[in-house]
Amino acid sequence: MKISDSASRRDFLKSSLIGSAAALVAWRLPSARGAEVAATNPPAGLDTAAVGKGTSRVALTAGSDRANLAFKVLEPFKQEIAAAIGDKRVILKPNNVIINRPLCASHADNLEGILEFLKSIGKTNVVIAESPAMGSALEGFSNYGYNKFVGQYGVKLIDIDQDGFEVMHCVDQTDFRPRAIRASKLMMGPDNFVISAAKLKTHDLVGVTLSLKNVVVGAPIKDPGAGLRGGGPRGGRSDKPITHGGGPHGINYNLFALAPRLHPHLAVIDGYEGMEGTGPVNGTPVDHKVCVASLDWLAADRVAVELMGVDVGKIGYLTYCIQAGDLGEGDLRKIEIVGPALKDHIRTYQLPKTWEKITSWQQPPART
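Above: the chain sequence. Below: its structure as tokens.
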């Protein structure tokens, strides 16, 4: 359903800013210092319908209009988002793993709901930026219907691979020595506000891919012609495989280690049609019809994992981020859910066939 339809338009218009004198409340990222792995799961008998009353809030919406779900899920944070953006440029980062498979990519309707919300709070300095695993970002934008946003909302479309970069370092689990990567400056610029427009998807290497992974693995750039594993017909190099760390120990550590600099300021996770099984590309659809958002990306990812019926303690990089204690809130008991009861919208996603390998990060790496 398009946003221009009268019913949806009425919903959006109701959500406009009421008066320019509205007070803006600054968002304060909560601390979860001292969190233990066991604390990431609620104890037996705890009702996840009203999980927490802490300072981290995660909004949840459910319904039959994808664009409207994205718009409505952001409304509870209207003042906080406006204050956090201020005069910054908004970087809207979709999840386009490859450029010709719609189920694996952020849907245009989801982006439209986010853009309409930003317009309603007067934030129009927006770019959509991506670096897919293979192929041209601009070709992907065309394939997935993003080009219309240039005229509709005045956004700019940016291929991250053609933009500036900064050198960062990852490890490979074979020797845990640093490897250099070229990472997008757009994702780290102090004058940029990054929104991760992610999806509820399983992942054949780390279990799930949500708001954090969308940014971390999207940030490393590739040369023209580079393929999925780094090489290309013209000798191009992709730095994305380096972030994968040579296996489950390496990739989970790298996602955690890069999170302090490569994380979204706002997470919007579209679960209207999720993906299960062999994600993030070759999985099958899940008719879920939900959307999640938070200014605390870790809390958003934590709630998203719960919605997928996945044990967060099996997801290495999220467990590391929770244990670190200062990247966001990962204790479900300390997260306030704004919206319908979480327990009423939990689905059990089919896990990848590689689950045993995915969870092998829990044991020390084999000696070579």
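The chain has twelve helices and eleven strands.
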